[in-house]
Design brief:
By secondary structure, the protein is an alpha/beta fold. 49% of the residues lie in helices and 15% in strands. The chain has a 5-stranded parallel beta sheet with strand order 4-3-2-1-5, sandwiched between helices. The longest helix has 27 residues.
């Protein structure tokens, strides 16, 4: 009787081994990555700098990004949040006698940059948001903003809100 019981236990052990090992293997496999519910690629660019060349580079990056997304038939939501010196890029007003006053480089490039912004908005659906605190500090009337700029209470708070909604944060250095 002891031999039969031992034989039974040995067989049971040997037969159950694959179950134990397969459980370990299955547990080691990575879980599939969570996909966004709406499958929309979301990106927010932070524009708080005065340098017109840097801004031009940012617009080029956005244009390239949009081209890739459209090539791949991907849905996207791209925003630019303008804070501080970024206000210079969403108005034709030279902002004289403010900390954000137009310099020679911006004066030279302004029309080109505004045209590129207009194309991004009208043709590619890129959205623009301006910090209301900055606008108030500059004393700039809303009617002097380029078309399509939404004023938000605080630009940095808006960026934080967008990040919590799944937007990737990008800032051109």
């Amino acid at each position: 009787m002891k031999i039969k019981f031992r034989y039974f236990l040995t067989q049971l052990f040997l037969l159950s081994m694959p179950l134990f090992f397969s459980a370990d293997i299955m547990a080691a496999e990575p879980a599939p990555a969570a996909k966004p519910k709406d499958n929309v690629i979301k990106v927010v660019y932070h524009a708080d700098f005065a340098d017109a060349r840097r801004f031009s580079t940012m617009l080029t990056n956005i244009n390239n990004m949009v081209a890739v997304y459209q090539e791949n038939l991907a849905d996207y939501d791209i925003r630019i949040v303008f804070v501080s010196y970024g206000i210079r890029f969403v108005t034709k007003d030279p902002l004289a006698k403010t900390p954000f006053a137009e310099d020679a480089e911006l004066k030279k490039r302004r029309e080109n940059l505004l045209g590129r912004l207009e194309t991004l908005r009208e043709s590619y659906g890129v959205k623009f948001e301006l910090c209301g605190i900055t606008r108030e500090q500059a004393g700039l009337e809303v009617k002097k903003l380029i078309p399509g700029v939404d004023v938000v209470r605080s630009g940095v708070v808006r960026i934080e809100e967008l990040q919590h909604q799944g937007f990737a944060y990008l800032k051109i250095e």
